[in-house]
Design a protein that fits this description.
The structure is a homohexamer of 295-residue chains. Chain A is mainly alpha-helical and 295 residues long. In chain A, α3 packs antiparallel against α8. A three-stranded mixed sheet of chain A has the order 2-4-3, with no helix packed on it. Chain A has ten helices and four strands. Chain A folds into two domains: 178 residues, Ferritin, core subunit, four-helix bundle (Ferritin), CATH 1.20.1260.10; 63 residues, manganese catalase, domain 2, chain A, CATH 3.30.1530. Chain A is 46% helix and 4% strand. Chains in contact: A-B, A-C, A-D, A-E, A-F, B-C, B-D, B-E, B-F, C-D, C-E, C-F, D-E, D-F, E-F. At the A-D interface, β1, α5, α6 and α7 of A face α1, α6, α8 and α10 of D.
Amino acid sequence: MFYHVKELQYNAKPERPDPVYAKKLQEILGGQFGEMTVMMQYLFQGFNCRGEKKYRDMILDIGTEEIAHVEMIATMIAHLLDGAPAKEQEEAAKDPVVEAVLGGMNPQHMIVSGLGATPTDSAGYPWNSRYMISSGNLLADFRANLNAESQGRLQVVRLYESTSDPGVRDMLSFLIARDKMHQNQWMAAIEELEQQQSAVVPSTFPKNLEKQEVAYSFMNFSKGTESEKGSWAHGPAMDGQGEFEYIENPEAMGQIPDLTQPPNYVHGTPTPGQMPPGTEGAEYEQGNMDQGPLN
Amino acid sequence: MFYHVKELQYNAKPERPDPVYAKKLQEILGGQFGEMTVMMQYLFQGFNCRGEKKYRDMILDIGTEEIAHVEMIATMIAHLLDGAPAKEQEEAAKDPVVEAVLGGMNPQHMIVSGLGATPTDSAGYPWNSRYMISSGNLLADFRANLNAESQGRLQVVRLYESTSDPGVRDMLSFLIARDKMHQNQWMAAIEELEQQQSAVVPSTFPKNLEKQEVAYSFMNFSKGTESEKGSWAHGPAMDGQGEFEYIENPEAMGQIPDLTQPPNYVHGTPTPGQMPPGTEGAEYEQGNMDQGPLN
Amino acid sequence: MFYHVKELQYNAKPERPDPVYAKKLQEILGGQFGEMTVMMQYLFQGFNCRGEKKYRDMILDIGTEEIAHVEMIATMIAHLLDGAPAKEQEEAAKDPVVEAVLGGMNPQHMIVSGLGATPTDSAGYPWNSRYMISSGNLLADFRANLNAESQGRLQVVRLYESTSDPGVRDMLSFLIARDKMHQNQWMAAIEELEQQQSAVVPSTFPKNLEKQEVAYSFMNFSKGTESEKGSWAHGPAMDGQGEFEYIENPEAMGQIPDLTQPPNYVHGTPTPGQMPPGTEGAEYEQGNMDQGPLN
Amino acid sequence: MFYHVKELQYNAKPERPDPVYAKKLQEILGGQFGEMTVMMQYLFQGFNCRGEKKYRDMILDIGTEEIAHVEMIATMIAHLLDGAPAKEQEEAAKDPVVEAVLGGMNPQHMIVSGLGATPTDSAGYPWNSRYMISSGNLLADFRANLNAESQGRLQVVRLYESTSDPGVRDMLSFLIARDKMHQNQWMAAIEELEQQQSAVVPSTFPKNLEKQEVAYSFMNFSKGTESEKGSWAHGPAMDGQGEFEYIENPEAMGQIPDLTQPPNYVHGTPTPGQMPPGTEGAEYEQGNMDQGPLN
Amino acid sequence: MFYHVKELQYNAKPERPDPVYAKKLQEILGGQFGEMTVMMQYLFQGFNCRGEKKYRDMILDIGTEEIAHVEMIATMIAHLLDGAPAKEQEEAAKDPVVEAVLGGMNPQHMIVSGLGATPTDSAGYPWNSRYMISSGNLLADFRANLNAESQGRLQVVRLYESTSDPGVRDMLSFLIARDKMHQNQWMAAIEELEQQQSAVVPSTFPKNLEKQEVAYSFMNFSKGTESEKGSWAHGPAMDGQGEFEYIENPEAMGQIPDLTQPPNYVHGTPTPGQMPPGTEGAEYEQGNMDQGPLN
Amino acid sequence: MFYHVKELQYNAKPERPDPVYAKKLQEILGGQFGEMTVMMQYLFQGFNCRGEKKYRDMILDIGTEEIAHVEMIATMIAHLLDGAPAKEQEEAAKDPVVEAVLGGMNPQHMIVSGLGATPTDSAGYPWNSRYMISSGNLLADFRANLNAESQGRLQVVRLYESTSDPGVRDMLSFLIARDKMHQNQWMAAIEELEQQQSAVVPSTFPKNLEKQEVAYSFMNFSKGTESEKGSWAHGPAMDGQGEFEYIENPEAMGQIPDLTQPPNYVHGTPTPGQMPPGTEGAEYEQGNMDQGPLN
């Protein structure tokens, strides 16, 4: 169960309105790697957690913090939208600043949300839950979390570069620091789990049931071998259980596919030479009954 | 530019049809972490790559391999759908096996694709490109790739557990091995980049511009302190540049939000006591003209 | 900012697992009118609230409660999935109960979430934020909220009817009661606002600027006049400012549309008789330059 | 069955083209609460109606009218797009008016629809049918309808404020009046149904099966009690069957969740201390066979 | 403007309920090529039509008919859902017929729509407007229409094969005939337009501006030349303005891509060797100011 | 299986950056009829092909070419984004060119992809697989392909008209030529199949099972008969098996729908007069048990 306090986790007030920037800031609220994603991802991972208690507690701590981040950014966006102009285009075109604002705003910030934040990204695309994952395997999920915090911090930094408003930058500097902590946190948790299990997810599938011949081979599927110069091409593999090898010219190991004709009731492409039966219903129906469900 | 050979990368033929399993197998074809995702993710990362040539080449090698994985799984699904029954429900209900098959199939495998694979997941949900990421920062993206290969291998293993068909298991054992290689590959590439830069993405944002006070603090937002027992709560942080601290009772550091009233032309909630102007159009319009665009 | 306690708001433990029912229960977690919708809807309405403080506080109280409802239902679903069978189809078909379970499960509960709740509805469709609204006008939004609680309670009741598990029914009886409270709550808040303003949203648009002739007319667009028998056809209108009238044979009041030909650079349908210019590039290009951007 | 007449229900011709406004106007055509939504919502409610004939007739009358509204707005948008410039950006940048137009247009109005209306909202997002509801319970659905007409009229009014074109304003003044009628109409129908049943949806669920203790309690989940000042906190409830009470410090009534470990074949997080079996395939496989489907 | 009559265009009553078939039938109501698609596609093409009056009239005639098809199929689905069982799973599993029904139903037909049709396809996926097209070029759009009627009739036929209910088959035999007419109709209209213009869309782009060398070449991008045996490989092209040629070994005609390094403020992958500036904020910030917006 | 070569199929380098045009160009990369659509459509049609070998080979040849088109356009977009400004809005507003660029860019090209192409259309909407079709009937699918190449070429031509950059126009002139070839190719393949079967898809459904009376009738559902002037209204039908007829006043041929009341456990609208049972739980529950599953 949850409780709310009215104070924000950190300040979220710009020095001046900027409706165009409000549109951009939506990316880290409702985007693929925005705060709504990590909030929902951590809450579901916590609710579904079947592992040790300390993991469940830790995941829900950070999930609860992320609700506060959604609150902060939504508040900031509402402030940035204060006083957005609604003037008509013709007049606006005479005033370059007004026009610039109108052209760069998300029209839904006026028409739909009435100067409030929307649960969408900077392109106006709504958040959806396929952005998040809760797989029941903590090592897999902590990698998802590390990825989300990496992509997310990258986007916050790019947004920092796009404004000089001291209030906005102050809030972003807080988020940039928290995302650094969160990257560190997931790296620590990943290391802990990798030491208990092994580095490959899932660690519990028996080795003898996987195709060993190709489990450590880098396959060069393009002309040229620049890809040979990386640490993934030679030397011991990261899981400590094999040796990388570089296959310069990988060959196909499988058959040429040969699908059978579908049954008549699928009405696939008729074989040429076979008379199209459309004109002779009676015979067709008769023939069909022997082969399929038409009756 | 790309070329095709008719042979599959590996065998993709089941011993017998199984239309219900075909539906499940769709998850690793068109699901959030299926082969379509890694194929498109790697191709876009490669096409957009502005880094060293070896990375671009490596990414496109694996992207090209993933097209072949899409081909293999699609072929397998088409084989599994061979001879799917189309009989009507009433009759089917009399034959438990037929009925079980009909109840468990994705109806679109019959009606829409005519016994072919569909670009959807095991719930019938279509693939969309918000599953993938290409951020322009390779360390961020390699973490996305490691995550995708971890979630993907977990799902392949679960599908391996759900069938005993030797042909299907043979193909899955190949994919399980390739996904092990790909996890190893991205881990190697990540290590390489982390050593050149630092472990936090992006590594190029100046430290003095982020809120240092909260950059290494674990905040305990729930009652109870089980979360203190992990490696993320105390000791040196993973980036080697700070020390974790555990904040047992984190306090709000921000203001109570106080949004201003919107301009009249937004038609937000009218302030109580202010007479609703709807009945006196003329005066309203007059007053409004002073404040907003209605004219 | 938010805090978490480990206890659930109410019990969420079934007497026995039921993976098929778990799939159905998803509707009130991640469906159009599920708990994720009201949670996000209320949180955004609260964060964006520019009205009186008591409304903001009230909205966030209930929004915070809804996070706890998400937690309860997710927990219940995880319990219901305990021990879901993963057996292959052929064997399952021999055991009607196992088969029934496998046929009726959402396969992603096994493959993707590893026996955890997913942020989707009972058809497996992911939650998206276009389900919710925060418009900046509280009367409009409270009607959205009353609707959501009405549709939601209806769905919970239908789910109550579909199970006899005492644990599940216990939790649902709690939600059914809370949804009754929430319907009552929004009705009370709506009445309060309607008395301050008027019943039509928005109440602040001047009456003389709307087309009065059609502001209270019921138009009968079909053969037959059964629709005349309702309270919407005659008598005083609900806003107390007009009288309903019934137009038995509504006539078109507008023009026949007549769109102009598009400019050449749009490459719309060429006018017949006008020679297709494709074969004479030079002349075409010449002519086009006079009219459009091709140059 | 339906018939068409060529005249529009009302005029839909602007005084002059305005491609930027065309983009905004899309909101009330293909947006969450646009005419496509009410059109499809009413048609489906009518087609599915199992209640009294007068409701079915009434719903289909208004559904049929909404098709005409889609027609009017689509026509208006096509007119507004007349003569949209296609000039390249560099030249455009020299002419502020052209540039303003190009920057603010939806590029798909040129590239995809060739100066025609698109079935999308003002952010370019396509209409989808999860915007609408037809639940089989008329009281629930009429609340959905009242909400849609309230949100819709609010958006039309905001669009009225954003233009001074007399032709556009004329059409919008018609829609604003019709939406007033439709709000009145649904309020009348709701009142009728509430008097026959009761105010809480569904009215047919037995009271003794819901958790009475919490059916009229407002729970204050935040610090501070501003929310106590509303009509929802004390006094008789709106359904006339209970009394509101204000719970200042709501306590958790449920257990601390404790999920069981998943079966092995799910490959969840392995318990620490339990040796990772990946390296000893034979034993693992043996052990696994006892517990799960791997065989 | 539109009018409604209460009679259906054709009968839509099954002999007996069949909730499982109701789920399948949804495909031709709300699927990619269902009646909602052609209805909206034709209505928008008509509303946007800038060509000859006869086309606009014809398109709207068929668009209006399609609304009636939506009505028929929705009605049929509601009938098929009559008396769907809601019993719990455990009991159902004892009765194979009930269980088969429950396992094969779309749960939303019970929980969400209360035994009514839903605006979704047979996988439960909601209709969205990206299924349809209205491009402003009639030849292009008539090809879209011919495709939609071809895919649609194929699906109706497959559904005909999956039932033996005489009432359902009666309605489908009507739709199969109408789809035959509609295919014929679009073929006739296409032929008319192709004769006025030419066969390639758009016919108005000047030939000398397209890369003539590759305008009639079939490129064989795979090993093996089976593709040479078709009518597309040799002989006169269909537009009568060129000759097909078969390129057995197509060569790349373009450069190797070489993207420049992004500016610093993008925070892409840092060049190795370049010291990561994160630890020396002051200098970094200084340097950055010279190159980008960070300031 | 697939191989990659580093050279592009054709040049893809603009003369100068143009981030606004980059946004528009996305339409033919990730739009409804962009290269991702034809690439995935052809690959799936090829993988699923159960017809003659020459068709499979041909489809996969063109599918493989389309991967190269995705590569070319993605590369072009990355070049166009080079040097996109990130300056803040206020300063930008002082410089019309910079401002025009910022207002017209897709913000995700900076924030999300770091100056790389995104898998979205020109409105920023992500690609999804419901854009494509693979039906198992080649005639149906080749019509889908002809449509896709027609819509696609129309869009490329419109984009050609919107730029004067010689590098961009050079690449587009290549694509315009290839799309001409592809239209010709699918027309040739369609003609081949139509001659083997017949012109109506599917050709294998027996004529006597379809409602012959309406199989060649044009129905005029609107006032006025302009639609009679087309080739679809009179004369021999295109399939050579019937004669078009024009029905000026089509009549309804079906019944008035009359749906039965739903069972109680659906909780639909209660019949008026029937006392609302909510207040008397015991009796209700008793009564309900006779009719439905509540127990």
